[in-house]
Structures are given as C-alpha cells and as structure tokens.
C-alpha cells in the first residue's frame, strides 16, 4: 500500500514539474527572471524529492521481495519440520534391532532356499554324494533279506500244462 501511495505521489510531482517548467518559461518571456529563478529552485527541490521517492519505492520493493522469499523459506522449514517428525515417528516404530533381526531372518531364509535349490538342481558336493551313497548302502543292507535257497535239487523236466479247451475269449466275456 505504501508503495502504491508513493507511486501516486511521484505522478503528482511529475505533473507539477511539467507545469512549473512551462510556467518558468512563461515568466522568462514576460521578463520576470527572479520569479522564474524561484520557480526553478522549487522545481529542483521537487526533482530531488522525486529521486528520494524512487529510492524509497526501490527499498520497499526489495523489502516486499525479501518478505515473500522469507515466507517461502518458512514454508520450506515447516515442510522439513513435518518430514523430520514423520521420520522420527517411523524410527520409533521400527528400531535398529528390529531391522537387523528382519535382515538376519531374510538372509537365513535366502540361504535355506539356496540350499534347497542346489539339492533340486543336483548340484551336490562330493561330500554330499558320498554321504548319500553311504545312506543308500545302509538302507539296501537293511532291506536285503533274501529268501532261503532250497537244498533239494530242482527237477529236470518241467511238467507240461494241458491247454484248456472251449475256453471263451476275454473280449467276449467283457462284452456280455
């Protein structure tokens, strides 16, 4: 508001200066040199006022810009403050120990899954394969209970089986 008032004052002074210059010319034509000189002194004083007014307007505009920038800075600081509070609350919810525990569990689970993947992919080490072969031999030894071999000699001729006559074909039996 003050800037606008100073601008209006400047306009009035500018208009007054033009009038006084024209009046000073008229007075010189009329031969009134002393009055023209007094009027020109007044005009010079008003020009100085006009320059001072311009400086004040410049200062006011700079101040307005500083205020606007300070308001922007305040908004940024407020945003940083809110963000900092939010981070602080998030840190309270999840502690470093909790994060370390979760990371440890995740790493354990990844390692376990890697071992399963290696087993399924058949990429066993020699030690693993040796252990598996030993376990397989142990299991086969446990299950290797063979029936006893008869002590009597086997007959040399196998008795002949007579074919059954008039026996129906399997397709006919299933169809009926």
UniProtKB/TrEMBL annotation:
Q: Which InterPro entries match?
A: Snf7_fam
The annotated region (Disordered) lies at 144-176
Give the GO terms filed under biological process for this record: late endosome to vacuole transport via multivesicular body sorting pathway; protein transport; vesicle budding from membrane
Instruction: Answer yes or no on keyword NADP.
Output: no
Record's superkingdom?
Eukaryota
Q: Name one GO cellular component term.
A: multivesicular body
Q: Which Pfam families match?
A: Snf7
Keyword annotations for this protein, in alphabetical order, are: Coiled coil, Endosome, Membrane, Protein transport, Transport
Chief location bin: membrane
Q: Which residues form a coiled coil?
A: 43-70
Record's subcellular location: Endosome membrane
Family recorded in the similarity comment:
Belongs to the SNF7 family.
What is the name attached to this protein's record?
CHMP6 protein
Recorded source organism is: Dryoscopus gambensis
Q: What is the gene name?
A: Chmp6
């Amino acid at each position: 508001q003050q800037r606008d008032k100073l601008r209006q004052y400047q306009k009035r002074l500018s208009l007054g200066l033009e009038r006084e210059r024209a009046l000073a010319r008229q007075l010189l034509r009329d031969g009134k040199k002393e009055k023209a000189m007094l009027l020109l002194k007044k005009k010079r004083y008003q020009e100085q006022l006009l320059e001072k007014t311009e400086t004040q307007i410049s200062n006011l505009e700079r101040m307005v810009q500083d205020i606007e920038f300070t308001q922007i800075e305040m908004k940024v600081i407020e945003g940083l403050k809110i963000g900092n509070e939010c981070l602080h609350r998030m840190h309270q919810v999840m502690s470093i120990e909790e994060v370390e525990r979760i990371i440890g569990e995740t790493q354990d689970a990844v390692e376990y899954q890697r071992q399963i993947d290696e087993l399924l992919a058949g990429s066993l080490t020699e030690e693993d394969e040796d252990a598996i072969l030993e376990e397989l031999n142990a299991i086969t030894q446990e299950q290797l209970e063979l029936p006893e071999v008869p002590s009597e000699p086997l007959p040399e001729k196998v008795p002949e089986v007579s074919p059954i006559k008039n026996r129906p074909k399997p397709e006919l039996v299933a169809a009926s």
